[in-house]
């Protein structure tokens, strides 16, 4: 059921958007027509979205293996056994899964950075499930570091001191991009992005998103100042209290208390 296979990130995303539009139409504007076509007395039926933004309820492809990943099979069987709204929501979830599988089937030959860009473009659109159920996508909360992208592109160690990163100074963009891709957050596993604030742990020598360990650029500066002069915190006790707040995360990740590597003297 596929036409010419898209190759580039833009072509794959265009294909995804068109198929998604068809599926959204089937489950919203044309929902009564779609509902009537999903007769439980018929054989296994699938809901297809096509690159021309059309939708179709049809039997699965006969060829094995199929030309493209197949959508959920037998969506019609559960129609009369469920609440209509719940059934449509279930079909919408399966539609989202199918759309992703088709896109990444086409994107199998993309490199890692291209796949990441493709998913980012897809993720900026509401899912079929969100549209059908009326749920609003949750927007990322603005963080302190988001307003200081340029001055926070330098990674910092856990003591707040800037730690040089030779990757950022590489003049060869492609080589630089590949090297940066080898750095992953020790908490969430996300890849390096120069637009985000990162901080390094002196114990395990791993890097972390500042947001994952709840350390903002301002707090990193505060830690740095406190290490050089405990009086900046007012008392040594208040600085140790801050260390204790950070200990819960790093002690589990590094198996070592962070404050052991900090020296106030």
Automatic annotation (TrEMBL):
Q: Which organism is it from?
A: Hibiscus syriacus (Rose of Sharon)
Q: Which UniProt keywords apply?
A: Chromatin regulator, Metal-binding, Nucleus, Transcription, Transcription regulation, Zinc, Zinc-finger
> Residues in domain Zinc finger PHD-type?
184-255
Outline the segment boundaries, as ranges, of region: Disordered.
139-173
Subunit and interaction comment = Interacts with H3K4me3 and to a lesser extent with H3K4me2.
Compartments reported by the entry: Nucleus
Keyword Repressor recorded: no
Query: What does it do?
Result: Histone-binding component that specifically recognizes H3 tails trimethylated on 'Lys-4' (H3K4me3), which mark transcription start sites of virtually all active genes.
Tell whether Zinc is among the UniProt keywords.
yes
Q: Know the name of this protein?
A: PHD finger protein ALFIN-LIKE
- Predominant place of localization: nucleus
Domain commentary? The PHD-type zinc finger mediates the binding to H3K4me3.
Q: Name one Pfam family in it.
A: Alfin
């Amino acid at each position: 059921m596929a036409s010419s296979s898209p190759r580039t990130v833009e072509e794959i995303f265009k294909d995804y958007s068109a198929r998604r539009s068809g599926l959204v139409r089937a489950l919203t504007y044309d929902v009564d027509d779609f509902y009537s076509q999903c007769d439980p007395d018929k054989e296994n039926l699938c809901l297809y979205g096509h690159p021309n933004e059309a939708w179709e309820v049809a039997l699965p492809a006969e060829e094995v293996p199929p030309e493209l990943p197949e959508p959920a099979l037998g969506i019609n069987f559960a129609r009369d056994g469920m609440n209509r709204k719940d059934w449509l929501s279930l079909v919408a979830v399966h539609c989202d899964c199918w759309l992703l599988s088709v896109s990444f089937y086409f994107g199998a030959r993309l490199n890692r950075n291209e796949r990441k860009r493709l998913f980012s473009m897809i993720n900026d659109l509401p899912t079929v499930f969100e549209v059908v159920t009326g749920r609003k996508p949750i927007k990322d909360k603005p963080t302190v570091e988001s307003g200081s992208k340029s001055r926070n592109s330098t990674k910092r160690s856990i003591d707040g001191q800037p730690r040089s990163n030779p990757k950022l100074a590489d003049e060869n963009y492609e080589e630089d991009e590949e090297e940066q891709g080898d750095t992953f957050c020790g908490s969430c596993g996300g890849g390096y992005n120069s637009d985000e604030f990162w901080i390094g742990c002196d114990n395990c020598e791993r890097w972390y998103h500042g947001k994952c360990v709840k350390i903002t650029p301002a707090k990193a500066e505060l830690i740095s100042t406190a290490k050089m002069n405990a009086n900046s915190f007012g008392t040594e006790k208040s600085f140790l209290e801050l260390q204790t707040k950070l200990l819960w995360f790093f002690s589990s990740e590094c198996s070592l208390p962070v404050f052991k590597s900090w020296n106030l003297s």
